[in-house]
């Protein structure tokens, strides 16, 4: 069954508690919190304090997507804030082995994110030690962007190649996932879908989520 993680980036941030309730009522698996530093990506968003406050109001797992330079620096602050999983970008760190190790020491779910232009071969030596491989369907920084063409092919290749190395690896897709793009992603074996605009800006989000669960159970 597919796992859905709404991205709070697309919610009305003046009503975060409402955004959390909407996610809980929709029956999602976790909340994704997009942390951006204005350097690795051209946008600024949340810090540990936001995660700490969100933590107080939900039992949903909190997945922190670190779109930041030097992700290792942020492991401890987001762990203390209550994050359940941390995802760092391959393009942002020269020492991902250290990032992965430190996450494991803290018993955090650990993920590696690849931007659209980054080939999956770079992850070969890392996938055996991570829980999630996050494939970006858009260049990171903003919600509501269209997914790159032929992106489902990257999901298909990742699923086929990495399941031999790590049978437990979950392939997560983030960016541009909507009614149009989701079926192909599910067909190619995506395990987790990140929904920003197609969830929080979609008045028919409950029908959409139900449709995704139905598609993934066939
Ligand atoms: C983009 C973020 C995504 C984004 C998803 O940089 O990492 O999580 O919020 O939003 P949509 O689904 O609207 O592309």
TrEMBL record:
Its cofactor is Co(2+); Fe(2+); Mn(2+); Zn(2+). Pfam families: Ribul_P_3_epim (PF00834). Its EC number is 5.1.3.1. Signal peptide: none annotated. Keywords: Carbohydrate metabolism, Iron, Isomerase, Manganese, Metal-binding, Zinc. GO terms for molecular function: D-ribulose-phosphate 3-epimerase activity; metal ion binding. It comes from the Bacteria. GO terms for biological process: carbohydrate metabolic process; pentose-phosphate shunt. SUPFAM superfamilies: Ribulose-phoshate binding barrel. The keyword DNA-binding does not apply. Belongs to the ribulose-phosphate 3-epimerase family. This is Ribulose-phosphate 3-epimerase.
């Amino acid at each position: 069954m597919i796992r859905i993680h709404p991205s709070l980036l697309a919610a009305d941030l003046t009503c975060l508690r409402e955004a959390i309730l909407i996610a809980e009522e929709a029956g999602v698996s976790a909340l994704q919190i997009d942390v951006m530093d204005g350097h690795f990506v051209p946008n600024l968003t949340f810090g540990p304090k936001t995660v700490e406050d969100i933590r107080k109001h939900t039992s949903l797992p909190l997945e922190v997507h670190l779109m930041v330079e030097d992700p290792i620096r942020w492991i401890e602050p987001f762990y203390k804030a209550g994050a359940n999983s941390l995802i760092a970008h391959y393009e942002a760190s020269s020492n991902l082995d250290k990032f992965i190790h430190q996450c494991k020491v803290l018993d955090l779910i650990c993920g590696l994110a690849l931007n659209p232009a980054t080939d999956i071969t770079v992850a070969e030596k890392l996938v055996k030690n991570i829980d999630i491989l996050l494939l970006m369907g858009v260049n990171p920084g903003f919600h509501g962007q269209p997914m790159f063409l032929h992106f489902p092919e990257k999901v298909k290749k990742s699923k086929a190649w990495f399941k031999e190395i790590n049978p437990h690896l979950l392939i997560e897709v983030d960016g541009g996932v909507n009614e149009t793009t989701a079926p192909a992603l599910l067909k190619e074996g995506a395990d987790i879908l990140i929904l920003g605009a197609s969830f929080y800006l979609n008045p028919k989000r409950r029908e959409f989520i139900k449709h995704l669960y139905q598609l993934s159970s066939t």
